Amino acid sequence: MKLRYSPFSPYVRKVMAVAMETGLEGKIQIIPTDSRKGDPELAKENPLSKVPTLTTDGGEMLYDSRVICEYLDSLHDGAKLFPPAGGARWTALRRQALADGIMDAALLGVYENLRPEGERSADWIARQKGKIAAALDVLEEEADDFGNGVDIGLLTIGCALGYLDLRYADDSWRSDHPALADWLDVFGERKSMTATAPKGPS
After folding, report:
1. Which stretches within the chain are classed as H helix?
2. pLDDT one-digit tens code per residue, 122-151
3. What structural domains does the chain harbor?
């Protein structure tokens, strides 16, 4: 398998964390890709020109991270990150959607700040931060129920919070959400988290 990879994409990190949790990381060839530069090869694999994009051993192109993660989870015989049925499945999927939404809003804020200063919208950035704060408030209420295990919801939450630490370090999400911060301090010690954490200048 081949994975279009960017070291600072939280979605790519999510896929790589799933690959490690499922023991599949050694079967994936990493292809460093900067999706912002209009890579024509990436466009052939994904019409949205986004990472992550996975090419399966059979030559099928898969995107986005939710699809790729569920595909990888189907390839191993161990405990599944996507619960098969019932309330646990819907909780995991809801949490995945909420954490993906945090990453969406965080990235939109980052991209807005990359625009020339005179073209940036402070209102737009504030709206994205408002979405992040609302989602964090929900997760704070649930944090005591996360437990010590792992599923796709918790893994995505870990990646989303890690991205906030990377890009929004000056904001106070940790002090405003202490239960969530305490959970991340423990969950973040998982091998799949430490090995996929962005390193060096972004």
Report:
1. 10-21, 40-45, 65-73, 86-114, 122-142, 152-167, 173-176, 178-187, 191-194
2. 999 999 999 999 999 999 999 999 999 999
3. 2-73 (3.40.30.10), 86-191 (1.20.1050.10)
